[in-house]
Write a structure and sequence with these properties.
Layout lengths: L40 E3 L4 E3 H10 L17 H19 L3 H5 L10 H6 L7 H22 L1 H26 L10 H17 L5 H16 L5 H20 L5 H26 L3
Antiparallel strand pairs: 1-2
């Protein structure tokens, strides 16, 4: 018969870290009371805790979320910065790679049903002034939505609005029988963010007068200033307002489902509108 109790006077093995059995440690975790070596120690309110207990506590802690269900994150607006970097990189490639612009630009009549170009054209720009104004505007508008909606929903919103801007160009071109040779720029997507800010601010009970003024002024500029695709502005604006409204007004228990269902429904409606416009134009 054996016993785990050491005989009186027998040497006792020193305590060792469970994760690093070769390391002796007389410091113990405040939660589980196991020995913890310096590499596995994490500062706690009192004493230290082991990495396992810290991970377990983090898993049990609910992440704080905004009223609209976005996960609260500290730090820089990562998605907005990424979009800006992609736009700048694309503009540099436009300047140094022959044929880059013509390969990715969307020409509504020629590139019918080319969904890749309808999206890629939103990352191209005609001049340094063009990209500069768009990126500055994106920097002022984007972080608010990124914080309110969360990174994933915000990124999806931006891409769907970019697509919606291109669809707006096609639909309005068919209605007016005036087909532009090509459209470039992020303004369709940015107008979508304008529409989204309106929907979110209205849902949160904020003052919507400033965003309404911004939308009206920019829409008017699209009609007054030459070489501005106001059609893309309208398409992006409507798309952003509709999708953001679905995000913003979804009941709390349906917010996660809405984050996936709403973009799919909006894209499906855009595709139907696109197909109808091309069919009416015989393309």
């Amino acid at each position: 018969m054996s016993s785990s109790t050491p005989a009186p006077g027998a040497p006792v093995a020193p305590p060792v870290c469970p994760r690093h059995p070769d390391r002796v440690s007389y410091v113990r975790c405040q939660r589980c009371d196991r020995p913890v070596c310096p590499d596995c120690q994490r500062p706690a309110a009192v004493g230290v805790q082991c990495v396992d207990c810290v991970a377990e506590a983090a898993a049990q802690t609910r992440q704080p979320r905004t009223v609209l269900g976005g996960q609260v994150r500290a730090g820089a607006p990562v998605v907005t910065i990424t979009i800006i970097v992609i736009n700048i990189a694309a503009y540099v490639l436009q300047q140094v790679v022959p044929g880059f612009t013509s390969h990715w630009i969307f020409s509504p009549r020629i590139d019918s049903h080319d969904y890749v170009r309808m999206l890629s054209t939103a990352f191209l720009h005609a001049s340094i002034t063009h990209i500069g104004l768009n990126m500055v505007t994106l920097w002022f508008v984007g972080p608010f939505l990124e914080n309110a909606l969360g990174r994933i929903r915000y990124a999806v919103l931006y891409l769907v609005c970019a697509f919606g801007g291109s669809v707006g160009v096609v639909v309005i071109a068919q209605l007016t029988h005036s087909w532009p040779s090509g459209v470039v720029g992020a303004s369709g997507a940015i107008f979508g963010l304008f529409g989204a800010v309106f929907a979110v601010m209205r849902r949160m009970g904020g003052d919507i007068r400033s965003i309404l003024t911004l939308i009206v002024l920019n829409l008017v500029l699209g009609f007054v200033v030459a070489n501005i695709s106001w059609q893309a502005h309208v398409g992006g604006l409507v798309t952003g307002a509709v999708l953001a409204a679905a995000y913003a007004y979804a009941p709390r228990k349906w917010q996660k489902a809405t984050a996936w269902v709403a973009p799919i429904v909006v894209v499906a409606l855009l595709v139907l509108a696109l197909r109808a416009a091309y069919a009416a134009a015989g393309l």
